């Protein structure tokens, strides 16, 4: 019987078609940022990916106090924000977003900036700046708010901004949980913000816009281009900002995306193409991994990880050959594992 590839239920690969550019982790700015604020000391040896991210977010939240009015000293860079915050100055959500973007990227976590709002006049939080961070261990994006140190979960799984929006529009977020801090403490309201409820926090995500360009830290000339999900709700409602239709309507800065998957694309994830001829299998790997350093392969059951190219040929010496592949970025962060099985 000839060799053939066995179908495996791998993490889904969704290419990036809606966004442009990501932070360049080879920039010395990232190492300088980690050293200046001694960010490595925040982890206390923690290995879990989500917990590491939440510890970093918690640190940011504790360094900066909230000031929604201003004026704001400094030049707006993450370093300037942190330095001025150490002097007692406060900042608004966009500043927290910029700092979180820089810090998370410094540790190799793919992070993007977005704005959310209730889309209606006279609301408490008309517009809010937050981040989404790609979780390799969960194979999904999750919304992370550094200003209020919270995110949403459903069945213990962190939710993306679109998932929060979906839950709010469905039943006003009745089925999801607002969790706070690195210990993910469930809370129904936020005492520090006039006891704002979970429902009102979720309502913020009625309208969501993502920055199309994701190199905010390295390229401080931030672009105004926005990506939005063009679903039925978008088509049948008016996006309000400052009491009137949002400024981005009918401009070249608004990029509407009808395909939800294009927004929730999958960084660090592998797609493979396998062709078998005789005892040899040719494997082609593809991935949208920002700052890709290398692919790695491990032969099961007890092989070691080794660097490989995106195109390789395997000589089959067994009736069943199982291999796992993953991406590694410049910060040493590994992507979701991708298995290939070739057998007779």
Shape: globular
Largest sheet: 6 strands, mixed
Helix content: 10-25%
Q: How much strand?
A: 25-35%
How many beta-strand elements? Answer: 26
User: Major sheet: order of its strands?
Assistant: 7-6-5-14-16-19
Distance between the termini: 6 Å
Given as residue ranges, the uncertain stretches (5+ residues, pLDDT < 50) are none
Structural class: alpha+beta
What is the radius of gyration?
Answer: 22 Å
Question: What count of helical segments does DSSP give?
Answer: 8
Mean pLDDT: 93
Describe the protein's architecture and organization.
- Helix 2 crosses helix 4 and helix 3 crosses helix 4 (93-106).
- The radius of gyration is 22 Å and the shape is globular.
- With 344 residues, the protein is an alpha+beta fold.
- It has helices at residues 28-36, 49-63, 78-85, 93-106, 161-171, 198-203, 232-236, 260-263; strands at 4-6, 20-22, 65-66, 90-91, 111-117, 128-135, 140-144, 150-154, 157-158, 177-180, 185-187, 189-190, 196-197, 207-211, 213-214, 226-229, 240-241, 244-245, 254-257, 270-277, 280-287, 292-299, 306-308, 311-315, 320-329, 338-343.
- Helix 3 links the parallel strand 3 and strand 4 (90-91).
Write the layout of secondary structure elements.
Blueprint: E1 4-6, E2 20-22, H1 28-36, H2 49-63, E3 65-66, H3 78-85, E4 90-91, H4 93-106, E5 111-117, E6 128-135, E7 140-144, E8 150-154, E9 157-158, H5 161-171, E10 177-180, E11 185-187, E12 189-190, E13 196-197, H6 198-203, E14 207-211, E15 213-214, E16 226-229, H7 232-236, E17 240-241, E18 244-245, E19 254-257, H8 260-263, E20 270-277, E21 280-287, E22 292-299, E23 306-308, E24 311-315, E25 320-329, E26 338-343
Parallel strand pairs: 2-15, 3-4, 16-19
Antiparallel strand pairs: 1-26, 5-6, 5-14, 6-7, 8-9, 8-10, 10-11, 12-13, 14-16, 17-18, 20-21, 21-24, 22-23, 22-25, 25-26
Helix pairs in contact: 1-4, 2-4, 3-4
């Amino acid at each position: 019987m000839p060799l053939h590839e066995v179908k495996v239920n791998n993490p889904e690969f969704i290419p990036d078609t809606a966004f442009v550019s990501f932070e360049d982790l080879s920039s010395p700015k990232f190492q300088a940022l980690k050293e200046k604020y001694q960010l490595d000391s925040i982890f206390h040896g923690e290995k879990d990916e989500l917990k590491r991210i939440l510890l970093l977010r918690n640190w940011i939240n504790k360094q900066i106090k909230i000031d929604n009015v201003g004026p704001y000293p400094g030049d707006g860079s993450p370093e300037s924000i942190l330095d001025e915050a150490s002097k007692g100055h406060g900042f608004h959500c966009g500043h927290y977003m910029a700092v979180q973007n820089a810090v998370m990227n410094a540790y190799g976590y793919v992070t993007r900036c977005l704005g959310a709002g209730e889309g209606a006049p006279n609301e408490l939080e008309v517009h809010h700046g937050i981040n989404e961070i790609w979780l390799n261990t969960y194979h999904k994006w999750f919304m992370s708010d550094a200003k209020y140190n919270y995110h949403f979960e459903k069945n213990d799984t962190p939710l993306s901004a679109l998932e929060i929006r979906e839950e709010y529009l469905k039943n006003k977020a009745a089925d999801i949980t607002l969790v706070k801090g690195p210990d993910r403490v469930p809370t129904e309201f936020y005492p520090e913000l006039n006891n704002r409820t979970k429902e009102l926090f979720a309502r913020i995500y009625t309208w969501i816009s993502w920055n199309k360009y994701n190199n905010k830290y390295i390229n401080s000339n931030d672009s105004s281009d926005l990506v939005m999900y063009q679903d039925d709700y978008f088509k049948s409602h008016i996006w309000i900002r400052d009491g009137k239709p949002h400024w981005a309507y009918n401009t070249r800065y608004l990029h509407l995306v009808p395909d939800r998957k294009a927004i929730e694309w999958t960084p660090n994830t592998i797609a493979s193409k396998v062709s078998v001829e005789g005892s040899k299998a040719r494997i082609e790997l593809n991935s949208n991994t920002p700052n890709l350093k290398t692919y790695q392969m491990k032969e099961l059951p007890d092989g070691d990880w080794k660097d490989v190219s995106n195109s390789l040929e395997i000589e089959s010496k067994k009736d069943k050959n199982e291999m796992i592949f993953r991406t590694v970025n410049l910060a040493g962060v590994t992507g979701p594992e991708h298995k290939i099985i070739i057998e007779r």
